[in-house]
Amino acid sequence: MSENLSLKAFVVLMKASKSLQEVIKHDISNHGMRTSDFEILEALYHKGRLTVKEVSDAVLINTGSITYVIDKLEKKGLLERSHCKDDRRVVYIHITDEGKKLMDEVFPQHQQVIESLFEGISDEDKETLISVLKQVGQKAVQ
């Protein structure tokens, strides 16, 4: 009986994903944050001002849950909301100076954790991994 490589690849991918999520969750919690808090701040830190929908799409958190997280981050002074002048239904979110200062400290450390996960893996293998995962992701949304 031949080995089902698609099934094996799926299982390995899911196990690796779970392991990586646990490492990242632990790293982020070491900075006193939840993963959802970090994801929102990281999106704003790198992309600048975004609408609530754009943030939700970027971090893969549904819009119902994201409002709660944004409320908490706003109360902590890490981000602010502002209404669009042309369409009051649109709300923009942007990182505050305090939020940027936090991410200036946390993000380089977080990036180092990610770098250590890929230590010893060649750039060529990383490029292959990126390409293959994009293909799998595109198939999943067809």
Automatic annotation (TrEMBL):
Domain of life: Bacteria
Claim: Cytoplasm is one of the keywords in the record: no
One Pfam family per UniProt: MarR
Keywords, in A-Z order: DNA-binding, Transcription, Transcription regulation
UniProt cross-references to PROSITE patterns, sorted A to Z: HTH_MARR_1, HTH_MARR_2
Claim: DNA-binding is one of the keywords in the record: yes
GO biological process, any: response to stress
An MF annotation (GO) of this entry: DNA binding
Ranges for domain HTH marR-type: 6-138
SMART domains registered for this protein in UniProt: HTH_MARR (SM00347)
Protein name: MarR family transcriptional regulator
Organism from which the protein derives: Ornithinibacillus hominis
Origin organism lineage: Bacteria, Bacillati, Bacillota, Bacilli, Bacillales
